[in-house]
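Hey, resending since the last one bounced:
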Amino acid sequence: IGFMAIFSGFVVVVYYAAVMAWSLVYFINSFATTLPWAEDSKGYFFNDVLQISSGVGDVGGINITLFLSLLAVWVLIYLCVRKGVKSVGKVVTWTMPLPLILLVILFIRGITLEGAMAGIMAYVTPDFSALWDTEIWLAAASQIFFTLSLGFGIMIAYASYNKETQDVTGDAWITALTNSAISLFAGFVVFSVLGFMATSTNVAVSEVIASGPGLAFVVFPQALSLMPFAAFFSVLFFLMLLTLGIDSAFSLVEAVNTVLYDKYQQAKKNRIALIVCSVCFLLGILFVTKAGLYFLDIFDHFVTNFGLVIVGIVQCLAVGWTFGAHKLREYINSVSKFQISSWWDYSIKYVIPLVLLLLVVIQFYKEMQTPYEGYPGWALSLGWLSVIVPVVIAIGMALKSES
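The structure tokens again:
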């Protein structure tokens, strides 16, 4: 199970760094006299930044600009993790508060824009019919796994440096509530700007809403270009994306590094960090080819919708049934101010794994009915391999340890 978690995090950080490379390109170009995406943000992203090919089967060679940007990103990540938690701790003192400060600045600017309230109302007005869509629930589960770093081994890696008397429940509440509050707050920032964009272009808010890369690298940059002091707020926005990305990336890398530190204690931490970062960089070159976006989309879809959720299921089974949910709860209560009762046992043993399993089964059925985004079978098989291979290896490791 530990291998499955670490493998999932390893795959994610390999392609995630490519997104940071895009952010770095935008951040640098935000200092231009005229924002290069002002006239055609969609064309700029797909044609100028990505230089995207005709399809996943047309790799089209390496995008040199993104290649150099990816190299710079991995140098930054290496500098963050080269001394383990010591260097990570120093970096976090800057990279944690900085994005929040930038988010507050963007929020203040956003709500003062014309049309901001229209965007905010679109954000806070619920559509309850969406609750019947299983893809919404799976996307929500994947988002929580991602944003709370569940299923990657990150929390376990960092927790291993805590004292045994650390307040587990208190930390869990603080982490979950703070994370959710910031996520919701970020929504107000995004939708206030989208409301302004809709008003400026005289269209409905629903017409400018996008998701994924389209929101961060097409719609939002276009909206920023329409604002007064566009370059200044573009610098702030992409600096925020970079700092948030660095935090996420070095956490994923540190989880891998921690496992290797524990196994090869005689090796120097900076050497292990250099090897891991170098391997990730070399594998990540696939995602800065001209077909990189297609490969990124495929791997991200399968890892987040299947890989992480499966890890979550087996972790619940291991804790709930093999180790014993009541045993872990008793330990947690012994070190925590806030006590959790027997409902937690039933959640870990039954509710969470059954709900996650149901979502995975439904999503698998849909995948069999309609291939994801119409990609060819050979391309989708790469995504399936990212899910199946760690499961097979994990089973093999378990059988070997039994023998």
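The chain has a mean pLDDT of 89.

Sorry for the duplicate.
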